[in-house]
Amino acid sequence: MFTLHETRGGVHPPQLKDMRDYACKLIDAPKQVRIPLNMHIGGPCKPVVAPGDHVFVGTLIGDGEGLYAPVHASISGTVVSTDVEDLPTGAAAPVVVIDSDGKMQPDPELKPPTYANKDEFIDAVRASGTVGLGGAAFPTWFKMRAPEGKRFEFLVVNGMECEPYITSDFRQMMEHPDRVAGGVHRIAQALEIPAAVIGVEDNKPEAIERLRATIAENGWDDLVEVMAIPTKYPAGGEKVLIHAATGRDVPAGGLPVDAGCLVINVTTAARVEYFCQTGRPLVFKVMTIAGDCVRNPGNYLVPIGMSVRDIIEAAGGLAKEPRKIIMGGPMMGRTLTDIDCPVIKANNAILLLHDNAELADESPCIRCGRCMRACPLALMPFALDAASRRQDVIALDEHAVMNCMECGSCVYACPAHRRIVASIRTGKAFYRTETARLTQPKEA
Amino acid sequence: MDLINEASPHLHGRQSTTFIMGCVIVSLLPTLVAATVLYGLDSLILVLTCVVTAIVAEQACCMLMCRPTTVGDLSCIVTAMLLAFTLPATCSLAVAALGTAFAIVVVKMAFGGIGNNFANPAVAGRIFIMVALPSALSSYPDTVGKAVDAVSSATPLAMAASGSMPYSLVDLMVGNYAGALGETCLVTLLVGYIFLLVMKIVDGWATVPFILTVGAIMGLAGQDVVFHLLAGGLALGAFYMVTDYTTTPMTPAGKIIFGIGCGLVTALVRLFAPAPEGVAFSILFMNMFVPLIDRYTRNQLVGGAKHAVI
Lengths: 444, 310
Hints:
A: 5-stranded antiparallel sheet; 19% strand; B: mainly alpha; Ammonium transporter fold; two-stranded antiparallel sheet
């Protein structure tokens, strides 16, 4: 059904996936979790519990409306606060602080959902609190509703995990191939999508084999297939994966549905399947804890809202003082300066680096064109870099600054070590305000 | 805990500007050895003079402009070597130094330094000498093996223009004839170019069309095609000048147009102009069109673009 299409650009950073053979370990539960209610794209949830309330694992603590995903308690215990706090991301949102009772009791009222049609299935996915777990944190249920006049022809499942270091999706595929493949099959069936493909980078042959065997055993091969895709960064970028699997391109400013695709991550599919089987919502997340500073690196099952400090503690503490802490992978992750900040749904790795933390200084662009050849979207990063720095809105528009997905391939390829992504981000912000200003109707 | 806070990505590739320029210098070394063998120690001294001048000039410019020094990226050494390669071994050291200083100070640093120069500094420096001090380039020494006292004689292209052709194919390949010190030995130039190709530092998008265009036009004009491809500065120009990053177009399509343009101008100069050599002129001429070519040979964006209506 699916054939592999060649994709443009890309780079080959070192894999650094030393944690690939470390089985997932349940981390020792913390004494306290701090769960922000804005762990998704969209408006923050409102707390539905009050200080003093007792909650179980999986109890609903935050709900909202519109574009949102509900939030559930990740440990059992007592709510101590639901105040609005400033978060390290720069946003302010309510944070539900729960003190553990040490029991980790699941909510007795949780039961598998029942659904009879597409809408009820989407409601069930919403109730599970699932968001895009590849890192984008877009509410999954919202994505599943194809807009009027559009439909999903393909379900593209992202098992690429092309970022260096991270192995959490890989462990998911290795340890729960039935949940991954079953979730994909269930979603394709429920949403009436005629074909689904799980794209996995060919540096994970064990995962490909295991998924294929599971699919064959359960007779899911009428709907689901697994595609081995050549390893390169960012082969797991949504647009890049869609092109590799279907040969289609998402139009600029459009969504995957404009190319007839619904794209979800393997872990997202596994979480949906787990919820449909057990009724337990998304409150734990597999995270790869790696880098040269942590004593017991590995893949840990972490309750959402646990602080980075507690996680480091539970992972054996620090062997060296880190110079840089990255939430996520080294290509797109963000640095952390406050280790008391909680982990959220979309986090999939914490990297604590000492030795390779400092990067070379930038030097002038020599117009070698390596950034342009590395760009998976055929942008001209050197031109965007220059236009952003001189705040040239016309050039930013001509070179389609908003197309950039900030994958970082250009910076990786740049011999002058130019911080192209950083300047494109400021360029985008400038472009947004400037186009809004220039296009608003003149006052009389 | 004092933690670094910066934007992604947090991994950089291992290549650097210094590494790239270092590779180019290494690729030029065989030709430098060949030049020393062919034209004597004078060539080595000339090259060293240019290199030292370039380093001093660039450092002085950086200090005058109160900017961090850029000598460490080695690009000024590449410029100096390429410029020296286009000069006769007997060229006066003062003239060579003046040309190099012009290339670095006026062509490169005055426009903002590495990456901002509009013309290839080595080519512009060579043309500066040709125009301002033509007597310095009026004679080219013969190779050491042929004339021990290095009597100057006409270059093959000058001879061809006057109708005689005394050199064999082998002579043309190894550079055993009178000419600029780094332009004649094709074998070593080719070795250097292939090294750069293997290291993925240069490509052939401009080089191949350049050479093919010169060959095609010379063929159509009834000239000796092989001779015109092997003699003169075509190899140095095609391998090292039109593969310069800053002064050539970015995309393959742009590079092809640039290469064809260079070939066209080179052939026209060789056929019709009083000067026998056209490579340097053609490259300088085409350098002027790079922004225009870049503008019309942009990449096809994946997924197109959604432009704001301003």
